[in-house]
Specification:
about 35% helix; six-stranded mixed beta sheet; alpha/beta
Length: about 210
């Protein structure tokens, strides 16, 4: 799971020429779900989002206050393209993103847990959940507007996503390279690999939004 967190003076999401969510001061969160994300990733990310110190205090102390401390708002938007690989060629590779049908449930869990933590910490009634932590429209073509305050922007990876990124950087020292003996070499051309199948599902989801 990966998120881009921006400190904002205001932010909004428009779908089909209708404003579906709008906040004042707070954070805009662009969140991407990876195929192997777990409830532990949800818990980690939700806690970080509501508790990350992104504002100074009244005494000039730097990075002392969070959205909870200041009663600010959160606007969360699904953004699977954050997990694209653009290192090779000029076409984004979406092997690292979760297909829409699977990502929806995990994204909704992240949204729900962020709301739950906010309400619990501030001792607010459940009716305030959709006001303090707002949402875009999953899978829709959205126009996201914001006024970045600073600018201040942070990139956050859950432990699972960080581990995956590390494992993909190469073969650890001491590990044997190549194909183990007895393992068939190559993949039949007419049989897509799991990663290729995953990327196809993600791109299909993107085309449905166009």
């Amino acid at each position: 799971m990966k998120a881009i967190i921006q400190r904002v003076l205001s932010a909004s999401v428009t779908v089909d020429n209708q404003v579906v969510s709008s906040i004042g001061k707070g954070i805009l969160v662009l969140a991407a779900i990876a195929p192997d994300d777990t409830p532990e990733d949800v818990e980690y990310m939700a806690n970080k989002l509501v508790k990350l110190k992104m504002w100074d205090d009244d005494n000039g102390g730097r990075w002392k206050l969070s959205v909870l401390d200041l009663d600010y708002q959160v606007l969360m938007v699904s953004q699977f393209t954050l997990l694209a690989n653009i290192k090779k060629g000029t076409k984004p590779d979406f092997h690292g993103a979760c297909p829409p049908d699977l990502a929806r449930g995990m994204y909704e869990s992240l949204l729900a847990r962020t709301r739950e933590l906010y309400l619990k910490e501030k001792k607010l009634d459940a009716s305030k959940a959709t006001e303090v932590v707002q949402n875009g429209v999953f899978g829709a073509m959205m126009q996201v507007a914001l006024v970045n305050d600073g600018p201040v922007t942070f990139e956050l990876n859950s432990p699972q996503n960080t581990a995956l990124n590390t494992s993909q950087k190469g073969t650890p020292k001491g590990s044997k390279k190549g194909t183990p003996k007895g393992t068939p070499k190559g993949t039949p051309k007419d049989t897509p690999t799991p990663a290729e199948d995953n990327a196809a599902k993600v791109e299909e989801g993107l085309s449905l939004q166009s």
